[in-house]
Specification:
- The complex is a heterodimer of chains A (about 375) and B (about 450).
- The radius of gyration of chain A is 57 Å and the shape is elongated.
- Helix content of chain A is about 20%, strand content about 5%.
- Chain A is α+β, with helices and mostly antiparallel strands.
- Chain A has a domain of about 100 residues: Fusion Protein Consisting Of Minor Coat Protein, Glycine Rich Linker, Tola, And A His Tag, Chain: A, Domain 2, CATH 3.30.1150.
- Chain A contains 5 helices and 4 strands; from the N terminus they run ααβααββαβ.
- Chain B has about 450 residues and is mostly beta strands.
- Chain B has 2 domains: about 120 residues, Rossmann fold (3-Layer(aba) Sandwich), CATH 3.40.50.10070; about 270 residues, Neuraminidase (6 Propeller), CATH 2.120.10.30.
- Chain B has 4 helices and 32 strands.
- In chain B, a hairpin with a 6-residue loop joins strand 13 and strand 14.
- In chain B, helix 2 crosses helix 4.
- The chains are: A alpha+beta (about 375), B mainly beta (about 450).
- Strand 1 of chain A pairs antiparallel with strand 8 of chain B, so a sheet runs across the interface.
Chain lengths: ~375, ~450
């Protein structure tokens, strides 16, 4: 059963098909377009063009162009110039001979024999351990002539404020019956000393031992480590087996033992540990003194990237123990690079103790009553590109 | 159990004071020193002693060359003999260290020379004055009198190496273009000389324009560009025989800017073909070539890395002349220069860490170095025209050509430390350009 809509749709489609076939209302005329005419060149004309022959042109009269009138003044009469003297013809110059290529130069590399060992003994005495400079008569740095340190007037020896207790040296023998010699400091001095003054300084002179660097405030001495009193617990008499031994607290006993061991060894170590650490200012002073002598101008670029840490012993008078140098660490380079950097650091420390004619570093007396060991790291990386 | 724990705790407490004591025994830490001074190391070199009669002049000459080599680096400063407090009594005599410390000599070189006929023997010792010890063992060189300068250079190389910790460069040679005549009619010849400008000898005549000689890694051959045929072609020259032959390159209009590979068997160069310049590599034995770049840009001045795996070159592919690095087999390059101006003639350092280059900026020319990733660019020189850097065999010094301004300007060779210090003119008898530093001689 077909619906009404089906009939309507069929009629509509049929009408559309009929309209498209018949084309009612459609204009068949093409759209207008512009037409440009072109000139046509004949075959003869093209051949003439390509052959450089002008084609026939219509003969016509060529209008004459009006030429501008130019009023020209009469040219001045030419001045007769004296003809130049003809120079004699130059003598023929000999044509330089063509440069001959250089003969093969003798570029053979001369033979060179390298011996990696020291020369023979007759030619080269072996220098294994050169004797000290003093033994070979070295002329050391001139020492200023000692000034006559005699007081203008004889001054009586002041009375001692206190009697110095004689220092007794006891023989380390078990024979207590043997007489023990006592070293007594003799304080008696009956004659006036030859050198009654430390030094005589004229007006023109300046004290040679004046400190070059202002002292910095010293650090506060560290508090003494409190020593814990050993607490001994009272034995519990009521105990059974333990009653025979006192029940000692192991913690307290260990503390007491440690305190005893720490206080029982008053002998200072080689480095001398009295006086505590240095202040930041004192450390900076020492670094500043060494800095002036630390030259890395001859270091390899690899050594300039190597940080070395050096330890050495310095004496209370500011002098360096030359045999105490030790490179304790390095980083940033190879061992060879570190050796170069270490040598330059060691040289700086050694040279600076006599820098400017002084004899030793300037040290705070309180902290350097005995030889002490110092450590300093040298980092040249920031000077690499300077 | 509780008793055991108390015992362990007690042991810990007992050890604590000991560790504190050990810390107290440690050295006083002064911290870290980061600033010093950059000064030349003062050294003393008493004239080497003649061991046999007739050796006096040779001993004096060798002493002078050794001292000049060391002082010429800028790293050392010679203490004049007038300041000496004492002189060694003989070679090998005990050293009066205090005398040398007193004049602040940090290093002492003593030596002796013996001439027998045409044979000469040189021996020397080096001392570290402030440590009071000898630095290394004594050494002895023997050779002919003709090679006395080489022996002096070798002594200086050893001294340099022992003090600085890096290899020397004194016993080496340089090939360059010797220039004579005015600027508009300048005769150019390939020449070879010692590193200090001595013993100059010509390897070619001036009949044709020659450019850019380059040493082989072993120093036995030289590549150079010649206009003998009217077009630039690459020649290979044997240094010993001065025999030369044209390099078989890829077909093209112009071939130039050659360099040897690390093994000396291959050559990289620029080739212009049809107006396009690219980089090629040719095998010397077989003549086979490989094109390494292929762009419309001008790419030239290739230089191998020390391990031969990479090539640095210049290219204007970005619009301006810049430096690029690519694989030795070609491939996509990576630009490394990004500063203002134009970069050219890159040369890889023998150490492999730096690239030297010529830079043109604001009407001035510079010789500079940068890391291979383009960082830490440093300009070492500045003048009207500086160009063509070449590395010393130890990678510490750069030689280059400097031309003065004007119609009568001349070109000379200069050297400079990679720190930018110690700029010196190399004493060549004629003008010079395009230097190429050879290897350290065996």
């Amino acid at each position: 059963m077909r619906s009404v809509g089906t009939y309507i749709s069929g009629a509509g489609h049929a009408g559309l098909v009929v309209w498209m076939v018949v084309g009612w209302g459609m204009d068949a005329e093409p759209l207008p377009f512009e037409v440009t005419e072109v000139s046509v060149v004949s075959g003869e004309e093209f051949a003439a063009l390509t052959q450089g022959v002008q084609p026939d042109q219509p003969v016509g009269s060529v209008p004459e162009l009006e030429q501008p009138v130019i009023e020209e003044p009469e040219p001045p009469a030419p001045v007769v110039e004296t003809p130049p003297e003809v120079a004699p013809p130059p003598e023929p110059i000999e044509t330089p001979a063509p440069e001959a290529p250089p003969e093969a130069p003798d570029l053979t590399v001369p033979e060179t024999v390298v011996t990696d060992v020291a020369p023979a003994v007759p030619d080269t005495p072996t220098i294994v351990a050169p004797p000290p400079s003093a033994e070979i008569g070295s002329s050391l740095r001139p020492v200023p002539r000692p000034a006559p340190r005699v007081a203008p007037e004889i001054v009586a020896q002041p009375e001692p404020d206190a009697t110095v207790a004689p220092e007794v040296t006891q023989a380390a023998t078990e024979n207590t019956e043997a007489p023990v010699e006592e070293d007594v400091d003799v304080a008696e001095e009956t004659t006036a000393p030859e050198e009654a003054a430390d030094e005589i300084v004229t007006e023109a002179e300046t004290p040679a031992f004046a400190p070059e660097i202002s002292s910095r405030p010293q650090t506060r001495p560290s508090r003494p480590t409190p020593v814990a009193e050993p607490e001994v617990e009272v034995a519990d008499n009521t105990g059974g087996e333990s009653a025979a031994e006192p029940d000692v607290d192991p913690v307290a006993a260990a503390l007491a033992e440690a305190a005893a061991s720490a206080s029982a060894d008053p002998t200072p170590s080689v480095q001398g540990l009295q006086g505590g650490d240095l202040s930041d200012g004192q450390k900076a002073d020492l670094r500043r003194e060494i800095r002036n002598c630390w030259s890395v101008g001859s270091a390899s670029t690899a050594a300039l990237n190597t940080i070395v840490t050096v330890e050495w012993v310095i004496n209370p008078n500011g002098s360096i123990d030359g045999g105490s140098f030790e490179m304790v660490a390095f980083e940033g380079g190879s061992r060879a690079d570190a050796d170069v950097a270490y040598r330059m650091a060691r040289s700086a420390i050694s040279r600076c103790q006599n820098d400017g004619g002084r004899s030793g570093y300037t040290l705070p007396a309180d902290q350097f009553q005995e030889p002490r060991r110092l450590r300093l790291s040298f980092d040249p990386s920031e000077m690499r590109l300077r | 159990m509780l008793r055991l724990m108390r015992l362990i705790f007690a042991s810990f407490l007992a050890l604590a004071p000991l560790s504190v004591a050990q810390a107290q025994e440690a050295a006083i830490d002064l911290g870290t020193l980061r600033e010093g001074v950059i000064e030349a190391l003062p050294f003393a070199l008493p004239s080497f002693q003649p061991e046999v009669g007739g050796s006096e002049q040779m001993a004096a000459d060798i002493s002078r060359v050794v001292a000049e080599d060391l002082a010429g680096t800028g790293l050392f400063r010679q203490i004049p003999s007038s300041a000496f407090i004492s002189t060694p009594a003989g070679f090998g005599s005990p050293v009066a260290y205090a005398d040398w410390r007193a004049i602040n000599a940090q290093a002492l070189v003593t030596g002796a020379v013996a001439v027998n006929g045409n044979q000469v023997t040189v021996k020397f010792r080096l001392y570290d004055v402030f440590s009071g010890a000898e630095m290394g063992d004594g050494l002895q060189f023997a050779g002919t009198t003709d090679g006395w300068r080489r022996m002096a250079h070798k002594v200086a190389d050893v001294v340099y190496s022992r003090i600085t910790g890096e290899a020397g460069y004194f016993d080496s040679r340089v090939v360059y273009i010797a220039e004579t005549g005015p600027k508009d009619d300048r005769a150019k010849r390939v020449a070879i000389m010692d590193f200090d400008g001595a013993n100059v000898q010509f390897l070619t005549d001036s009949s044709a324009i020659v450019l850019a000689p380059r040493f082989s890694p072993t120093g036995d051959r030289v590549l150079y560009t010649s206009y003998e045929s009217g077009f630039p072609r690459i020649n290979v020259l044997n240094v010993a025989t001065v025999q030369r032959q044209q390099l078989q390159t890829a077909p093209g209009d112009m071939a130039f800017s050659p360099r040897f590979s690390l093994d000396g068997r291959q050559v990289i160069y620029s080739l212009t073909n049809g107006g396009n310049t690219d980089i090629y590599r040719s095998d010397l034995a077989s003549g086979q070539f490989t094109r390494l770049t292929n762009t419309p840009a001008i790419e030239t001045a290739p230089s191998f890395s020390p391990d031969g795996s990479q090539i640095v070159f210049e290219s204007d592919r970005s619009g301006t002349q810049q430096l690029y690095i690519m694989s030795a087999n070609g491939g996509e390059p990576q630009r490394i220069s990004f500063g203002n101006g134009r970069y050219g003639t890159p040369v890889w350092s023998p150490r492999g860490d730096l690239v030297a280059f010529t830079k043109q900026q604001d009407g001035r020319f510079h010789i500079g170095v940068m890391r291979t990733d383009g960082s830490e660019e440093r300009l070492l020189t500045a003048s009207f025209l500086d160009e063509g850097p070449t590395w010393a065999p130890n990678g510490r010094v750069i030689m280059f050509a400097r031309e003065t301004q004007g119609a009568d300007g001349t070109s000379s060779l200069y050297s400079v430390d990679i720190t930018g210090r110690n700029l010196r003119r190399v004493g060549t008898p004629q003008g010079g350009s395009d230097p190429s530093w050879g290897p350290l001689q065996p």
